[in-house]
Specification:
Shape of chain A: globular
Number of strands of chain A: 0
Distance between the termini of chain A: 21 Å
Shape of chain B: flat
Oligomer: heterodimer
Radius of gyration of chain B: 26 Å
Largest sheet of chain B: none
Number of strands of chain B: 0
Helix content of chain A: 55-70%
Strand content of chain B: under 5%
Number of helices of chain B: 12
Number of helices of chain A: 12
Largest sheet of chain A: none
Order of helices and strands of chain B: HHHHHHHHHHHH
Strand content of chain A: under 5%
Chain lengths: 325, 327
């Protein structure tokens, strides 16, 4: 797309073309010439317009690499397609409306509800913290402080989720017991850097002129943030939150220490573990008994459908708003 | 404050004072909340490092640094060490990077240079969606769908063609192992590195590309001579982030690697990594030494991750400076 070339054939027609090209002087007549310089004198078209020798080899090399790059991209799309297809095919036998509204053995309703509660609590913790720390970075911090906090957020983002699970286990579960709330805290720690960094990028896009106009009217900082900066960045903040929810919904590693042993019932998340979809899939895949596989595939399909839909919807809305900007 | 005084000056006296007070309080509260939130992130990072080191202290005092080099892991006899796990972690991540980085760079080049705008607007999000697939689903798919395929077709083929290399030994019957773990990690790493690299390639100044093209360079020559050199350090930083992901992935690796405590040169044999050993054994660990040793594994992994991520940041900053300087 970002491409100064049209058809590679045109390269042969460039005057003063590369060494080794035997017909360097025939201009390309397929493109209309806006300057009118070349049309004044019809060029000699008797020679063939095909490259030869050294130039042909260079173009061949270029085309080989382009083909390789195309194949790599198609490979990635094919893997995505194969994964979605194999999940959908294996889930088809159990999928029905009852699958998401009944509990075992017919469906996975408790797991869905547990995941919703855990992720909702995590979002309620992570969104204010993420947005406020992004505000601190863009509105208040000096350059040095902002750089330091950005490094902290990036390092936090780089910590594997299993380590965050160990941390929350040591913090909230040792001496107490597993709980849905502990799982929410772990997911919140995963979500905060995602929300904060994406929100910060959005806040930086708010035009400086809008802040300066508010300053020129003598409006205090907090009114500017509430009335000008946050409304202008609202779309970006919502996108960041939805994408981080989609990421947290599938996160498994912390939950296997923090919210297993739940059985089949939803109880108070602050005192009891909750059943949830990722742990359900994990335990089914680790068990030697393949009878539970069909329902695990069904659960995987429900989770995957939610995550992919969240991604597609936010991306589409985001692109539309980016176009209208 | 003088600006806000003048604004309030349009109001009668007591209302002016009220607005001024509300502004002062509002500013203070907002600043306090924002600072608190940012400090919370810093606190979380510090607390994670402290808690993991604290949980490992029993194992550290018992085994010391020998933990890193020995190979035994026998919970029933109270013997723990991380040698095989560090080997498994490094090998799977290295294979994933060797396979993944060329593919990721090729995809990024396709999206930024080769594909028409409309096509790359569709394929780009699809590649990013590959990164959104939860690891537990990828691992489940790996062990049920990919493993039988590899065992029946790809692994015997690689053994018959490249069997003179010790890493492509005969295929065992289990179907799980280091090789499939590396492939799953590759699938996770590629979209991350590809989308970061695409953004880098798109930010290479157009004048440079057009200049090269005007001198008669083919598209590949523009890529090799302009695009890649001017974004090389950014791609290196992106690869570091991908490496961090590959080192730290626990769930999908646990599902496909086979959890064996041995060092094999043959990639098709089973093994284990730091993160997957924690995911595999932590829920069932009972003795305090076992739990502390798993925390010790977490500490080693955390050290790996911090080094890789700091390296990525360091490279990226240098890259920024160079890019600004060249303008």
């Amino acid at each position: 797309m970002n491409d100064p070339f049209g058809d590679p054939q045109e390269a042969t027609g460039l005057p003063g073309g590369p060494a080794g090209s035997p017909e360097p002087s025939a201009p390309d007549m397929q493109e209309p010439d806006p300057s009118g310089l070349l049309t004044a004198d019809p060029p000699d078209l008797s020679g063939p317009l095909t490259p030869s020798g050294h130039l042909r080899r260079r173009q061949l090399i270029s085309r080989c690499f382009e083909t390789g790059q195309t194949i790599a991209a198609l490979l990635a799309v094919a893997v995505l397609g194969v994964v979605i297809y194999s999940v959908a095919v294996r889930a088809a036998s159990v999928l029905s409306f009852g699958f998401i509204t009944h509990s075992a053995p017919a469906g996975i309703a408790p797991e869905i509800l547990g995941t919703i509660i855990i992720v909702a609590l995590a979002t309620a913790i992570a969104t204010p913290v993420g947005v406020l720390s992004a505000l601190y970075l863009t509105e208040f911090a000096s350059t040095w402080t902002a750089n330091a906090f950005r490094l902290v957020l990036d390092l936090l983002n780089g910590i594997p989720s299993i380590i965050i699970g160990l941390f929350v286990f040591g913090l909230l579960v040792v001496g107490h017991h597993q709980s849905g709330f502990a799982a929410s805290v772990a997911l919140a720690i995963i979500m905060v850097p995602l929300i904060a960094r994406a929100t910060q990028e959005t806040l930086l896009l708010v035009p400086a002129g809008m802040r300066e106009a508010a300053d020129a009217l003598g409006i205090s900082r907090w009114r500017t943030v509430r009335g000008v900066v946050l409304p202008a960045a609202r779309g970006g903040i919502v996108t960041a939150t939805v994408l981080s929810v989609a990421r947290a919904a599938g996160e498994t590693a912390p939950l296997i220490f923090l919210s297993t042993l739940a059985g089949n019932t939803i109880s108070n998340p602050f005192g009891h573990p909750l059943p949830n979809i990722p742990v359900y899939i994990f335990e089914a895949s680790e068990s030697a008994d393949p009878t539970g596989f069909a329902r695990a595939w069904g659960a995987a399909f429900v989770l995957l459908a939610f995550i992919l839909l969240a991604n597609i919807v936010t991306r589409t809305l985001n692109r539309r708003s980016a176009l209208s900007r | 404050m003088s600006a806000s005084t003048r604004f309030a000056g349009a109001l009668p006296g007591n209302a002016r004072a009220r607005v001024r007070r509300a502004d002062r309080i509002g500013d203070g509260v907002l600043y306090g909340l924002c600072l608190f939130a940012a400090l919370l992130a810093l606190l979380a990072l510090g607390a994670i490092v402290y808690k993991v080191a604290d949980g490992a202290s029993l194992s550290i005092s018992r085994f010391g640094l020998g933990f890193l080099t020995h190979a035994s892991w026998e919970p029933n006899f109270g013997r723990f060490s991380a040698g095989t796990l560090i080997y498994g972690t490094v090998v799977t991540a290295a294979v994933a990077m060797v396979l993944g980085i060329p593919i990721a760079i090729s995809i990024a080049l396709y999206l930024s240079m080769v594909a028409p705008r409309r096509v790359s607007a569709i394929i780009g999000p699809l590649v990013e969606m590959l990164a959104a697939i939860p690891s537990v689903i990828l691992g489940f798919w790996g062990v049920i769908v990919l493993a039988p395929f590899l065992q029946a077709h790809l692994e015997p083929f690689l053994h018959s063609v490249l069997g003179f290399l010790p890493i492509f030994g005969p295929t065992p019957t289990t179907g799980t192992g280091l090789f499939i773990a590396s492939l799953i990690l590759t699938i996770m790493v590629v979209p991350i590195v590809a989308s970061l690299s695409r953004d880098l390639f798109l930010s290479v100044p157009r004048e440079l590309q057009e200049g090269a093209a005007a001198l008669g360079a083919t598209r590949w020559e523009v890529i090799r001579g302009v695009i890649l050199p001017s974004s090389a350090s950014g791609v290196a930083a992106a690869s570091c982030l991908g490496l961090g992901r590959a080192l730290g992935e626990a769930i999908a690796v646990t599902q496909v690697i086979g959890a064996a405590n041995v060092i094999h040169t043959n990639l098709f044999e089973t093994g284990d990594t730091l993160a997957s050993r924690i995911a595999d054994q932590f829920p069932g660990a009972i003795t305090s030494l076992h739990i502390a040793s798993l925390f010790y594994l977490g500490m080693i992994l955390l050290a790996f991750e911090l080094v890789v991520n700091v390296a990525a940041q360091w490279i990226a900053r240098r890259f920024d400076v160079r890019r600004v300087g060249s303008r």
